[in-house]
Backbone:
């Protein structure tokens, strides 16, 4: 699926129109957008070169919209050299679930027990649970986890408390599932 050079002579057998070249470039850009949404653990499972992997990781660090747009084009350029069919088949397989939905096993087994052990406890018990989570799952961010727990404990009404519990469940689902896969 590499982009071919534009030829002016329509009679040649390897003729590729400009619109076909643009469509191929757009499909590579869409693939880059799909890859940017994956976690680092899931990206490591894909058949990507070091350059493409580094570009995808650098994209996540950028905050400026223009810089992200420009860097996305760079990632797409790096992906032109990759085997897009292999990457897309890995993405379309059952290896990856959407980022925003935690695993069903996690939701029914691990997450509620972890959330219950974090919510409504005194600070020393919360710290002990956070420490054990960090030891078991090193890609969990301590500050983010503490902030989510604090938001749940400080919520005034039940609706905000439930919303924050959902956020914590998604966060745990994303990071605990990411460690189980990678």
Residues:
């Amino acid at each position: 699926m590499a982009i071919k050079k534009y030829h002016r002579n329509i009679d040649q057998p390897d003729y590729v129109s400009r619109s076909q070249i643009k469509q191929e470039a757009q499909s590579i850009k869409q693939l880059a957008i799909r890859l940017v949404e994956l976690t680092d653990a899931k990206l490591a499972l894909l058949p990507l070169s070091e350059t493409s992997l580094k570009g995808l990781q650098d994209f996540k660090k950028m905050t400026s919209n223009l810089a992200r747009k420009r860097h996305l084009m760079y990632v797409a350029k790096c992906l032109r050299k990759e085997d897009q069919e292999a990457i897309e088949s890995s993405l379309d397989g059952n290896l990856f679930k959407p980022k925003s939905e935690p695993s069903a096993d996690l939701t029914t087994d691990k997450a509620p027990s972890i959330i219950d052990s974090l919510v409504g406890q005194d600070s020393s018990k919360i710290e002990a649970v956070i420490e054990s989570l960090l030891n078991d799952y090193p890609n969990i961010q301590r500050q983010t986890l503490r902030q989510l727990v604090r938001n749940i404990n400080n919520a005034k009404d039940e609706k905000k408390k439930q919303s924050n519990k959902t956020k914590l469940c998604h966060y745990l689902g994303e990071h605990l599932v990411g460690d189980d896969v990678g």
